[in-house]
């Protein structure tokens, strides 16, 4: 049976030493997040995730969710109590507005808790996770009455939230949405249509479910410009918050799927359900994007989370399993064989996962801090720069962390040999669960198009220039430092590859957009490598400084330096191959007629 | 529901046009394999796989195998009849010795049928597949009496075969085997011990199962030099072939695993079961290697097979699913959206799978022909060269085709968006089934070690020099041909990378073997890319010649040229990254103490 220990120490090192979170103590909520408070909060979160959520991970996979004939859905044994424990700990509202019962702490801390809970039990963590996204959307675009009615209960975890976008004929292309909204005299709408792939669409955990639903108001323009967002409660809510009749929405069936069995993936039927407009008419995509962007970061974190828990279990196995002898002679001569961690190829695989995990975690936290600055910061320029980073990095994080997170789950599974394929060891569940993160909230190919087609050209390329300037300035300032130079040099080369690729798009994709599409996924991964390389040099800087000052655990800091070197030597060289593929353009890709495939 | 069409045309193009199989008509069995016979044989195989095996693929996944309390195992509905249909078609004995009822046709054709049947139904194809491996081992190392007793029934498919190597505490390190064999006065042995992960170890398909079992004869030396091979029938067989009592071997449990649910993975308990020595005492590994090498090629083909069937279904979906518009403007203006095959990134993914599939198939067939030459050829030198190629390429094929085959199943699944995650679409089954191929018959890390540690240095590097000479001579001869130069040039660069990597090992791994272990998997994939690049230039040569002669389907031949270009531009550049990683050596990998992981 797999186990999990939340990486609290690594998070504290990143927040305190690498990013010096206290620099932001002028932002709302940050003053309350002093280092000792952060440590205590994360310690509590770790405890809940390790002791309550993780033991239910395999149960959830085995039992799955069951839909009954009357449309009710039962979640796996223990899930209900665990979600309530999560809610009662205040974790859903950790970063939410205190006006509605939230704790108002930095979003950065919520991102950390998201990692811990997703490592412990991804299917379970989705119930509060989606609720947090729905809270964010309602908080930004809901009317004062809507906020007052829904947010306190959702923040308290008494009700959960969902997002309803996809229909059988459209997922990526939301302009094709058919679900209809018919205005009623009382200002409400009657919603009718079918939504599919609705995570947590129906369950037995809470007394109500607040659905956020994209639909087209009768007579609205075609395409994405005619889509509005509605809030549709499963059970009608009176003005005083009391529950009334069932609304006209029900779960028609649940999907049998590869993984995340503990979370019901529902077909939701809206049969004249009563809903209320959220935000402006025909601006529904805009409103939903608040939830989608938050969800995309959340999904990125799921990729990291599965990679982390898979790594931990692979390490434990590699230290325990004896098989064969070290190439350089026996290391455990008293045993029949050496533990497999003596083998270079086993270590190579472990380090490859770890070098990703630690940099990805840094990138998540750095981006989460930017998100806090963007949403809570005072200075216009600082806020704009933070928002630029957030917009640029959201598709990179979602695409790269879930692609690599999945690969790493597969890699960790491989360390187990045949045992990795057997359900009871739990490794194959990590693989199956991690797989969905590459698909939902915008398949990764769509993330790459968002990056290349929208985020790069936006505001005349301001965001990407800001990224180049930040990394470039860092390299200029620190590149001569002998302790940092061995790390800065390869990063400088990788940054050049990214700049060349960006330039190539500017020169070749304006007139021929297929060149952008053909290179988009390579560009996204190239971007991810450079961003993670940047995180590694910042980690090295902090680790070296701490070591020089005689602070911290020397073994832990040394491991950072070695892992950073591994990243530079063995992972960063991939940037050249990405650049070569991008520069190859679209010709060979577009040459064949569709029939020739 | 997924579908499958066997790529008969592509195989015929490879056998007839690219490799000119008829050149080998002097070999036993090849004279019977005239082009029209081959076409007819493969057409029959295709029909069986498409119409009988494939429709049972999803049934097998859903039902799985069931072990009853008495140890009996029931296979999924339809499996028994389908395996018998396969046997009655003569497919198990297609390449087997006519003396025992085989058809004696080239092994190359059996490899093709293996691809078709594994694409159609991998779990089912393993029943005859393992039997063929057991036939090969008994044919090579069995006594005349053993051959006469077992081979005719196995070739006829009346009995199946298994291989029993792994025990709970050892898979890779067979020197740790504990299963005991105690000599009996009648020349037989009593076998006792537990074997795990035994595919098709128990089932209801045939009346007997012939287990080949590795065990240690009482008093034998420790380690791999004390292991012998035994044949242990499930049901005792009298000299006239009649079935008698049950032998002391039974299935203790079956594993719940990620995929290939239709094939029972058994814990086999040997409780004083009667067995007979196969080959020489303490030379069991040697004898088992006949079966393992054949099985490794078979597993490599499974990787290709899952990649092929996943590709076919992804293409069908990409042509059918409409979503969004082409970047260059609507292509299906009469519809609400364009089919997603207009998008460069969708095509890139499809071409990446296809460029692999077609080269991998060529490499499998070329290697299978070498196997036929090695086992049936007359000329000593030719036979030795063929055997060198076979030994060198077996780990490359096993490791590369299963790693990339799995990646491609994931890639094809991704084209389906959310539907790819849902069981009823069948794509996630391909991923789950393909995953095992990276693990069994020697996990891919072991294949890489076999390549670098054994196959490279063997006979003073004769095999790898032979490979370099063959590809180098080809490039020298054809590299100036204007039709081939654009393909030969990148291959020449990639070959140099491989040669540099080989040289790097010679210079750096003798004194420090960890350098070999640290670079072994990169080297294996680098080797695979060069070998597939070599296949592509040979395919291009044949396609260009055919086109120039006005023969064949021009659209098919054009697609070969475009796909080859895609391979050279977008897949071969990876060789540089592999070389960079290999040259980085083992330092950062070995630096950390085990506790630091």
Automatic annotation (TrEMBL), chains A, B:
Reaction it catalyzes: 3-(methylsulfanyl)propanoyl-CoA + oxidized [electron-transfer flavoprotein] + H(+) = 3-(methylsulfanyl)acryloyl-CoA + reduced [electron-transfer flavoprotein]
Pfam family for this entry, one: Acyl-CoA_dh_C
Its EC number(s): 1.3.99.41
Cofactor(s) the protein requires to work: FAD
Keywords on record: FAD, Flavoprotein, Oxidoreductase
Domain Acyl-CoA oxidase/dehydrogenase middle: 163-271
Positions of the Acyl-CoA dehydrogenase/oxidase N-terminal domain: 80-158
Primary enzyme class: oxidoreductase
Source organism superkingdom: Bacteria
Family to which the UniProt record says this protein belongs: Belongs to the acyl-CoA dehydrogenase family.
Domain (Acyl-CoA dehydrogenase/oxidase C-terminal): residue spans on this chain: 282-451
Domain Acetyl-CoA dehydrogenase-like C-terminal: 467-593
General function of this protein: Involved in the assimilation of dimethylsulphoniopropionate (DMSP), an important compound in the fixation of carbon in marine phytoplankton, by mediating the conversion of 3-(methylthio)propanoyl-CoA (MMPA-CoA) to 3-(methylthio)acryloyl-CoA (MTA-CoA).
Organism for this UniProt entry: Alsobacter soli
Keyword Plastid: no
GO molecular function, one term: flavin adenine dinucleotide binding
UniProt name for this protein: 3-methylmercaptopropionyl-CoA dehydrogenase
